[in-house]
């Protein structure tokens, strides 16, 4: 199956259990006129405001460089296909001929796409707090929120 990034308002940060994600493997072709079934898609929920860039690695130095933005997930439930899944295998009916009415062969499924992506979260502040030094900005912030800024 495909690996899909989906914007979700319930996500607040880019936190993953694993950094290697893979869609479910499709099935091979079967007998009795059956084709291989496509694997299930793997959906990764990311916060709204996630920017996706493709990573390119230099073969000799293994240094990373990033491409331009390939996706900007700015709306609820917006989706981006990060990697396409493989193709399901052909069943025995695909190999049927005039001389071979019931072939005993089938085709295996093809592997999907492999890619390395860089995810970046655009943080947008709702409020800005500006003032002179020693004007009590941190003290005010501590009183009105759960924030614990360092003072001193």
Spans of at least 5 consecutive residues whose pLDDT stays below 50 are none
The proportion of residues forming helix, as a percent range, comes to under 10%
Strand order of the largest sheet: 2-1-5
The chain-level mean pLDDT equals 79
Biggest β-sheet: count, sense, barrel?
3 strands, mixed
Q: How would you name the oligomeric state of the polypeptide chains in this document? A: single chain
Number of strands: 6
Termini separation (Å)? 54 Å
Secondary structure class reads mainly beta
Number of helices: 1
Along the chain, the helix and strand elements come as: EEEEEEH
Basic shape: elongated
The fraction of residues in strands falls at 25-35%
What Rg, in angstroms, do the CA atoms define?
Answer: 25 Å
Model description:
With 152 residues, the protein is mainly beta. The chain is 5% helix and 26% strand. It is built from one helix and six strands; from the N terminus they run ββββββα. The strands form two sheets. A three-stranded mixed beta sheet has the order 2-1-5, with no helix packed on it. The longest helix is centred in the last third of the chain and has 8 residues, at 137-144. The N and C termini lie far apart (54 Å).
Which secondary structure elements does this structure contain, and how are they paired or packed?
Elements lengths: L2 E6 L33 E6 L2 E8 L6 E10 L5 E5 L33 E5 L15 H8 L8
Short description:
The protein has one helix at residues 137-144; strands at residues 3-8, 42-47, 50-57, 64-73, 79-83, 117-121. It has 152 residues and is mainly beta.
């Amino acid at each position: 199956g495909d690996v899909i990034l989906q914007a979700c308002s319930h996500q607040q940060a880019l936190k993953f259990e694993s950094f290697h994600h893979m869609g479910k493997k499709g099935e091979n072709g079967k007998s009795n006129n059956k084709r291989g079934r496509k694997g299930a898609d793997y959906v990764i929920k990311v916060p709204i405001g996630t920017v996706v860039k493709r990573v390119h690695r230099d073969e000799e130095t293994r240094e990373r460089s990033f491409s331009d933005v390939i996706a900007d997930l700015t709306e609820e439930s917006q989706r981006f296909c990060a990697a396409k899944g493989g193709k399901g295998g052909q069943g025995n009916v695909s190999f049927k001929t005039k001389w071979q009415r019931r072939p005993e062969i089938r085709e295996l499924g093809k592997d999907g796409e492999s890619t390395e992506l860089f995810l970046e979260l655009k943080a947008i502040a709702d409020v800005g707090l500006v003032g002179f030094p020693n004007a009590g900005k941190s003290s005010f912030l501590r009183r009105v929120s759960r924030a614990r800024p360092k003072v001193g």
